[in-house]
Write a sequence for this structure.
């Protein structure tokens, strides 16, 4: 394995020269990809409809093609699932990443082409390792096995040979043989549909492997690690995998989970590297050791546009390209991709922290916020507020969600939080006060609504029993994969469902 480690490390480091190239010439690389995407799709049904043959500039493109939601593209996706081709993209489309929406009964099926797999998702995975090897040249990460929490896939129609499933499952199912050689468990277990069966078998298999790296969504990875410790009677993951050195994570903010991981893996030599990837594409990688900023990856077959959030609700929102973004502004992301997504709303919001090179921080979701009273509370605010409240009261959080209690009988409203703690705060009243004050310090709109309790009163916090959120996701058939708890909502949809579970088991 030592020879493999040395060889793989060398290969990964070579990619850094290409990464440095798009860091140096970002707008040129983006324009090159724009031209490639338009040219590739000009003879598709979509390309002919919008006369891509005459589109010569990003400005023409933006003026001609409306901003697209999933509902706008769904008629094309439905036809692709039935086996039609050359609709959105010229090459065969037979894989569909099922959206990880938690409670939405109308699941999204995002097209995944061979180009999207090879030039985006797999390239992102390789670059994640390249950046890690570059930052830690003495790594032995390839001396052992990679453990990845994946989802499952199911055939749509045997006559069309089309499949849908979690993106992670699609990635695992199509992995190159050399990657399969370095990962555990095998596909037959990794792709099991039943999450609890998968968890049991993964635990049995992986405890006997030399695991050096983990990847996955923090919440689901923690469940696996706790299961392994429970089954082995060990107190530390390092007692099982002494050579474990890195966790590649994404999907949710890592802050609430950081302390728990450090307790389970008590080593100063353990590293954590964040990625920003979704069913629609691979977008960013944490490229600096001492910063949580994410480098925007610009050569993955994706052309980016951005919508300032003050434009988001307009019928025809103003969009800008990469060269026009400003630091500190909250933008929604639009993507045009080699999977046939055109000016597509990803649903995420980001803030640029650097423009040379372009680095971002995920600030929230376009739909996951609370603005019932004009407070415009975003996930970034919530995560920072909870982090400070935990530090002040010795708490640690496993999962949470929050939403509004609306104005009633001229009374001010509230924000209502449901929090499942790993470790309870030493004083829940102090926790609430610190959270509230931090949100006021971070968000002037929230502070204005809290002033004198005129529109907003002190938040209400419910403490959920262990596995409350797990059981809620299970009731939705949403265990494992990329499924995650919605953090903030502008309605009471999630709150009321989870409160009913809490009250039923009270």
């Amino acid at each position: 394995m030592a020879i493999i480690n040395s060889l793989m490390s060398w290969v990964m480091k070579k990619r850094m020269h290409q990464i440095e190239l798009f860091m140096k010439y970002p707008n040129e690389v983006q324009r090159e990809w724009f031209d490639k995407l338009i040219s590739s799709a000009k003879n598709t049904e979509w390309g002919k409809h919008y006369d891509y043959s005459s589109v010569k500039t990003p400005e023409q493109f933006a003026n001609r093609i409306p901003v697209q939601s999933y509902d706008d593209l769904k008629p094309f996706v439905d036809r692709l699932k039935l086996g039609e081709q050359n609709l959105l993209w010229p090459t065969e489309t037979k894989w569909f990443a099922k959206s990880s929406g938690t409670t939405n009964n109308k699941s999204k099926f995002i097209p995944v082409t061979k180009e999207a797999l090879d030039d985006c998702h797999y390239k992102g995975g390789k670059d994640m390792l390249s950046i890690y090897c570059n930052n830690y040249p003495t790594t032995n990460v390839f001396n052992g096995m990679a453990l990845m929490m994946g989802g499952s896939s199911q055939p749509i129609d045997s006559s069309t040979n089309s499949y849908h499933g979690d993106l992670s499952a699609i990635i695992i199912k199509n992995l190159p043989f050399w990657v399969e050689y370095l990962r555990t468990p095998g596909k037959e277990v990794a792709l099991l549909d039943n999450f609890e069966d998968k968890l049991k078998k993964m635990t049995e298999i992986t405890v006997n492997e030399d695991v050096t790296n983990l990847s996955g969504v923090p919440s689901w990875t923690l469940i696996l690690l706790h299961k392994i410790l429970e089954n082995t009677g060990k107190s530390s993951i390092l007692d099982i995998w002494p050579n474990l050195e890195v966790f590649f994570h994404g999907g949710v903010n890592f802050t609430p989970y950081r302390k728990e991981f450090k307790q389970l893996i008590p080593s100063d030599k353990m590293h954590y590297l964040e990625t920003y990837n979704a069913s629609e594409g691979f977008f960013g990688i944490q490229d600096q050791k001492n910063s949580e900023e994410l480098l925007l990856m610009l050569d993955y077959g994706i052309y980016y546009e951005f919508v300032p959030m003050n434009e988001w609700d307009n019928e025809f929102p103003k969009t800008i390209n990469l060269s026009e973004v400003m630091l500190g502004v909250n933008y929604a992301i639009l993507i045009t991709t080699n999977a046939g997504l055109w000016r597509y709303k990803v649903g995420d919001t980001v803030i640029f922290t650097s423009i040379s090179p372009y680095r971002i921080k995920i600030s929230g979701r376009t739909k996951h916020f609370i603005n019932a009273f004009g407070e415009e509370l975003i996930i970034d605010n919530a995560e920072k507020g909870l982090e400070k409240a935990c530090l002040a009261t010795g708490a640690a959080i496993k999962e949470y969600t929050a939403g509004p209690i609306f104005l009633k009988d001229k009374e001010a409203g509230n924000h209502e939080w449901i929090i499942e703690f790993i470790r309870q705060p030493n004083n829940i009243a102090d926790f609430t006060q610190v959270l509230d004050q931090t949100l006021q310090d971070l968000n002037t709109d929230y502070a204005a609504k809290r002033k004198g309790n005129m529109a907003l009163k002190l938040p209400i916090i419910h403490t959920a029993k262990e596995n409350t959120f797990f059981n809620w996701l299970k009731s939705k058939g949403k265990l494992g994969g990329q499924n995650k708890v919605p953090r903030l909502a502008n309605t009471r949809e999630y709150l009321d469902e989870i409160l009913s579970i809490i009250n039923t088991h009270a």
Q: What stands out?
A: Confidence is low (pLDDT under 50) at residues 101-105. The first strand starts at residue 95 and ends at 98. The first helix runs from residue 2 to 24. Residues 1-301 form one domain.
